[in-house]
UniProtKB/TrEMBL annotation:
It is found in: Cytoplasm. One of its GO terms (molecular function) is tRNA N(6)-L-threonylcarbamoyladenine synthase activity. Residues 24-307 form the Gcp-like domain. Belongs to the KAE1 / TsaD family. Its EC number is 2.3.1.234. This is tRNA N6-adenosine threonylcarbamoyltransferase. The keyword Acyltransferase applies. Substrate binds at L134, V135, S136, G137, G138, D167, G180, N272.
Length: 337
């Protein structure tokens, strides 16, 4: 059963084909970074228009790579939320139209469930129960996963998500868009210990996060500095260390509180090498298993949507013919498989 996955929640157009027996057959990703760089951030209207322009050519490329044609598609999965409403509607309309034309089921996938399940595309995938750290530009959450589709929120950010904090901090220091990856890159040249920032909310109980105050600390340090290239690198290193250590402390606390022995990390910030190293050290120290998707599947992609959709379609779930999206969508409301 070949499932077509469509991801259009923000500024990346992702398409993939997944088969339950043969695994991932093909995937394509188009990034709009160059389009939005001029504006220093995502422009929703331009994002929607670019999804319209790129989606069908990417579908055809995936089919060609897999040696398939459209009638070979057994089901369609598309991101139904959360995300930018216009961008979501492009993928939903295209997915529903193709499903209707082919007479196959379609299912709307929760974007963050796609991220959460992305590590299951790797060899030796983790099995529930586990704790998931979902960390991206729009979300920072700790979830207890008792089974696929059975999620309980343990903690979340009260303001900025970690990825958003990376991007905004980079912009404050004049780094080019997209700032988060650039900040992580220059942090490698930073001098350890020259600056130190707080680890927000780690000195109190609970599993919630807050990164807005950390941003303010960085801004004040930057304004009071000589603003040289090396100082920028040093501040970037100290900021990244603060975010990574905060994520690691809260993740370890969630594992201890839940009794889980597996931590799944997903979302764009999951590609951060410092975070991966810190959690690998946690694994070595405690014996807890830590699972990441491959870096290409940390950011938004069609493969995670195709896989999540395949699981739900196989369980008999599908959407009515009406096109609907959910710009805000609580994962706890998802039906169990």
């Amino acid at each position: 059963m070949a499932i077509l996955g469509i991801e259009t929640s923000c500024d990346e157009t992702g398409v993939a084909l997944y088969d339950a027996r043969r695994g991932l057959l093909a995937h394509r990703l188009y990034s709009q970074v160059a389009l939005h760089a001029e504006y220093g951030g995502v422009v929703p209207e331009l994002a929607s228009r670019d999804h319209v322009r790129k989606l069908w050519p990417l579908v055809d490329e995936c089919l060609a790579e897999a040696g398939m044609s459209r009638p070979d598609i057994s089901g369609v999965a598309y991101t139904a939320g959360p995300g930018l409403v216009g961008a979501l509607l492009v993928g939903a309309a295209a997915g529903r139209a193709m499903a209707w034309a082919l007479g196959v089921p379609a299912v709307g996938v929760h974007h963050m469930e796609g991220h959460l399940l992305a590590p299951l595309l790797e060899a030796d995938p983790p099995e529930p129960p586990f704790v998931a750290l979902l960390v991206s530009g729009g979300h920072t959450q700790l979830m207890q996963v008792d089974a696929i589709g059975c999620y309980r929120l343990l903690g979340q950010t009260l303001d900025d998500a970690a990825g958003e904090a990376f991007d905004k901090t980079a912009k404050m220091m004049g780094l080019p868009y997209p700032g988060g990856p650039e900040l992580a890159r220059i942090a490698e040249r930073g001098v350890a210990g020259r600056f130190r920032f707080s680890r927000p909310m780690t000195d109190r109980p609970g599993l919630d996060f807050s990164f807005s105050g950390l941003k303010t600390q960085v801004l004040l340090a930057w304004q009071d500095s000589d603003q040289s290239g090396q100082t920028r690198c040093d501040i970037a290193r100290a900021f990244q260390e603060a975010v990574v250590e905060t994520l690691a402390i809260k993740s370890e606390r969630a594992l201890r509180d839940s009794g889980a022995r597996t931590l799944v990390v997903a979302g764009g910030v999951g590609a951060n090498l410092d975070l991966r190293a810190r959690l690998a050290a946690l694994s070595e120290r405690t014996g807890v298993r830590v699972c990441f998707p491959r870096p290409a599947f940390c950011t938004d992609n069609g493969a995670m949507i195709a896989f999540a959709g395949a699981l739900r379609i196989s369980a008999g779930q599908h959407e009515p013919e009406a096109i609907g999206v959910h710009p805000r969508w609580d994962m706890a409301t998802l039906p169990a498989l």
